[in-house]
Amino acid sequence: MFVHRNAQLPAAELPGIVHKTLAGNNLGACRLSVWRQAIEPGAATPPHRHDCEEVVLVQAGRGRLLVDGRSVEFEADSTVVLPAGCDHQITNDGDEPLVLVAAFSATPVGTFTPGGASIDLPW
Amino acid sequence: MFVHRNAQLPAAELPGIVHKTLAGNNLGACRLSVWRQAIEPGAATPPHRHDCEEVVLVQAGRGRLLVDGRSVEFEADSTVVLPAGCDHQITNDGDEPLVLVAAFSATPVGTFTPGGASIDLPW
Known about the structure:
The structure is a homodimer. By secondary structure, chain A is mostly beta strands. Chain A has a domain at 11-87. Helix content of chain A is 0%, strand content 49%. The first copy, chain A, has strands at 2-5, 12-14, 17-23, 33-39, 49-50, 54-60, 62-67, 70-75, 78-82, 88-91, 98-104, 111-112. In chain A, the strands form three sheets. A six-stranded antiparallel sheet of chain A has the order 2-3-4-11-6-9, with no helix packed on it. A three-stranded antiparallel sheet of chain A has the order 8-7-10, with no helix packed on it. In chain A, strands 5-12 form a two-stranded antiparallel sheet. In chain A, a hairpin with a 2-residue loop joins β2 and β3 (17-23). Chain A is globular and about 40 Å long. The two termini of chain A are 22 Å apart. The A-B interface holds A 1-7, 22-23, 27-32, 34, 52-53, 55, 57, 65, 67-68, 70, 72, 74-75, 77-84, 86, 88, 101, 103-105 and B 1-7, 22-23, 27-32, 34, 52-53, 55, 57, 65, 67-68, 70, 72, 74-75, 77-84, 86, 88, 101, 103-105.
């Protein structure tokens, strides 16, 4: 059992994105990872996929999900389920920070470009 | 890929607890479950365990976790990691609703009493 205050965890940054790993193999978990990200207005994740299932809880803001050539809008208090290996990109097309919590069915989380190259994340 | 608004999902109730399943085997996921629960002041989950790992994100309020005979206080913006098979009970000992999001490394989630009897949850 492992309890921690999220404010005490380190943050990492990608362009336009502030990231915190809330649970994972370095934080007491062995089957799950949980991340929280704040994406600035106009910013986006790179197109990518994971080697595990992902569930995204939209905590604040609004955005757009590009997946399999389709674009789907979403807003706060929505949930997105992404199968393992599903290429996707999330863009904040609103005026406020887009705050997401993402749960993954593995730890660590393998992350890849659509072409299959491993993305070495800074966390 | 599956996107839904949480407000459109049905809620279930246990005494003092309002529950929503945000992701799981009936909502597009096959490896993860995600639940959201609001526990009233003074209310508690029954003592129980799961057959999978659980990560609890404390969204609002404060509470107490009883696990393995130990009692640990926690508050909003904390994270709790519970290994598979770990008996636990969560109590809201604050004055406001205790709002939790829980991610599980399986779907459906097997839930059992400390004695090993299956708990048939109403969701």
